[in-house]
From TrEMBL:
Residues 98-278 form the Cell envelope-related transcriptional attenuator domain. It comes from the Bacteria. Belongs to the LytR/CpsA/Psr (LCP) family. This is Cell envelope-related transcriptional attenuator domain-containing protein. It holds the Pfam family LytR_cpsA_psr. Transmembrane segments: none annotated. It comes from Dactylosporangium siamense.
Length: 378
């Protein structure tokens, strides 16, 4: 799921706010480091990049596909990080894992601003070597022959061709990572903006935990199981334990805006984690900080594209949680199309323009022009 790997940035901030990188170096040995980016790396231009026509960027239009390909390589200002959360439940091997969340992080050239953009996992894409499918299918396809690294590499290449963005780093966190990290910091405070009913966690008449819904294929429509009371998150602000936070940000089936609502909740959780990690309760408590860094290290698979985790901590030392802006794709509205009986999401022209702004390191201008695309912190 989404938030586990995002915490690499948050943890870097926490360590630096706590007085330097000496403590962090103690934990880098626990981070699983491997080559993930493949052709999506900044210094590895892909053979072909497909950029759909998008509104031209004021003051700096991209005139052709060839120019877009150039912008997607070494000349792009700023840094781009691809964050992938995989839903690998106990007993599943890596080939069975699914890319449940896909987030592009753009860090400004000055290193003092960042923008998070969640890509709908049902986005219609061309997966190299596999034809047209949903975006999250790229990880599964690549992992069948190449394991976790192969899944990420194929997904990253697909995202690069979709957005035109070359990547400077990538990270994966598995299913259990988020719960472990949230528990390590003592939980987080979140404000629920719409009543959210869990399709995964409920209780039967004897108080035993059991799923309250069946997800019926092929659409995975939820069907209520009689006699099981689902976990419900009512509107309002409250404290979340790790299991609650994980369950809350997994929900999409019963939300009015589906996956867009889940993206919003996931991004809000990141800001809540950032606030918690950089609070005195964690930074000022050696035991809590140790638990947090250990949880992050054990949950993370990382590729710094030639830079170590410590190097990335230093690169991000000027980035503060309040300088992170969360942006919607498609304005948070469904933009579905059906092909051969399968429903896909499509990136609308404004979303394609968003990535054009990102390639030019001008997402601040995009946010000014589209304030309704900015997600408010929880």
């Amino acid at each position: 799921m989404v938030w586990r790997w995002l915490v690499v940035t948050v943890t870097a901030l926490a360590v630096l706010a706590g007085g330097g990188t000496v403590a962090w170096r103690h934990y880098t040995g626990t981070v699983d480091q491997m080559d993930l980016l493949g052709e999506a790396a900044r210094d590895s231009p892909p053979r072909e990049i497909t950029i759909e026509t998008a509104p031209r960027l004021p003051g700096g239009p991209i005139a052709s596909r060839e120019a877009a390909a150039t912008d997607a390589a070494d000349e792009q200002p700023g840094r781009n990080i691809l964050l992938v959360g995989i839903d690998a439940r106990p007993g599943e091997d890596e080939a069975g894992a699914r890319a449940d969340s896909i987030i592009v992080v753009h860090v400004s050239a000055g290193g003092d601003r960042a923008w998070l953009v969640s890509l709908p996992r049902d986005t219609k894409v061309e997966i190299p070597g596999y034809g047209t499918d949903k975006l999250n299918a790229a990880f599964s396809a690549g992992s069948r022959s190449g394991g976790r690294a192969g899944g990420f590499a194929l997904l990253a290449t697909t995202v690069r061709r979709l957005t035109g963005l070359a990547f400077d780093a990538g990270a994966i966190v598995d299913f259990t990572g988020l719960r472990r990290i949230v528990d390590a910091v003592g939980g987080v405070d979140l404000c629920v903006d719409v009543e959210t009913v869990s399709v995964h966690i409920g209780w039967d008449a004897k108080g035993r935990q059991t799923p309250p819904f069946r997800l019926i294929p092929p659409t995975f429509r939820p069907e209520r199981i009689a006699g099981v009371r689902p976990q419900v998150y009512p509107v309002g602000c409250r404290h979340f334990a790790g299991w609650e936070a994980l369950d809350y940000v997994r929900q999409r089936e019963l939300l009015p805006d589906g996956d867009y609502g889940r993206q919003r909740h996931q991004q809000q959780l990141l800001t809540a984690l950032a606030s918690r990690i950089t609070s005195a309760g964690v930074l000022g408590n050696p035991l809590a900080l140790n638990r947090t860094l250990t949880a992050v290290g054990e949950s993370l698979t990382f590729d710094g594209n030639g830079r170590s985790v410590t190097d990335w901590v230093l690169l991000l030392r000027g980035l503060r949680p309040d300088a992170v802006t969360m942006l919607r794709t498609n304005g948070g509205r469904f933009n579905a199309a059906v092909r051969n009986g399968t429903a896909f999401e499509q990136l609308d022209p404004t979303t394609l323009s968003l990535f054009e702004f990102a390639r030019a390191d001008r997402l601040d201008a995009f946010a000014e022009e589209h304030p309704d695309w900015v997600i408010a912190p929880s």
